[in-house]
Specification:
about 200 residues; alpha+beta; 2 domains; 3-stranded antiparallel beta sheet; 7 helices; globular
Length: about 200
């Protein structure tokens, strides 16, 4: 993804100190092509909400006539950490509860839409699904954990009777393809959801 920041903001990033003690040894070990300060700056600008792919999907759903909600917490009771069992309408006293937060919710159709980034959620076979070479073991654990949590959340929502649609970041690059993809997925779920 391109860096869309202005030239002034790009230059506001602190430059690395070349005379830093032990810099030669660090460069030999560090496989990252960016400095530690620049990588930190890049990572601080990655958003979790209102991403460009999410905005494109929301816009398309509104154009298709759907009413949607954002930032909805769906409560799910759990017996142990990570194992969803049954739904609760409101969290009950003494019952451990976890919340699942889909990106977009169509309450009328009980439809949850997840807009996943190909890198962060491991879209298999996609050119954007790469694994960093620096600290590879840490990244693999983190990214595979994201994918495992996604499966857990999807399983829990299906048990509650929710229908799911997962839209990948690479599918949002072409608006015509995105419209066809979402229309096909809504048809698979049922005619109620595809025709208001």
């Amino acid at each position: 993804m391109r860096d869309r920041l202005s030239k002034e903001r790009r230059q506001a990033v602190p430059a690395p100190k070349s005379a830093e003690r032990g810099s030669l040894r660090r460069v030999a070990i560090n496989k990252d092509r960016l400095t530690r300060a620049r990588r930190s700056w890049n990572m601080s600008r990655i958003r979790g909400k209102d991403t460009t792919p999410e905005k494109a999907v929301r816009s398309l759903l509104r154009r298709l006539g759907f009413r949607l909600r954002l930032n909805v917490k769906i409560p799910v009771s759990k017996t142990k950490v990570g194992t969803a069992r049954r739904a609760v309408r409101t969290p009950q006293r003494g019952v451990p509860t976890m919340f699942i937060r889909p990106d977009i919710v169509l309450v009328k159709h009980r439809l949850a839409v997840f807009v996943h980034g190909c890198f962060w959620h491991r879209h298999r076979g996609c050119r954007n699904c790469t694994t960093p070479t620096h600290r590879r073991a840490w990244w693999v654990k983190k990214l595979e954990g994201n994918a495992a949590r996604d499966k857990l959340h999807q399983r829990a929502l299906r048990k509650l009777g929710w229908k799911l649609v997962v839209v990948w970041e690479c599918e949002t690059e072409n608006p015509d393809r995105l419209e066809r993809t979402i229309a096909n997925r809504l048809l698979k779920i049922g005619p109620k959801a595809s025709s208001q």
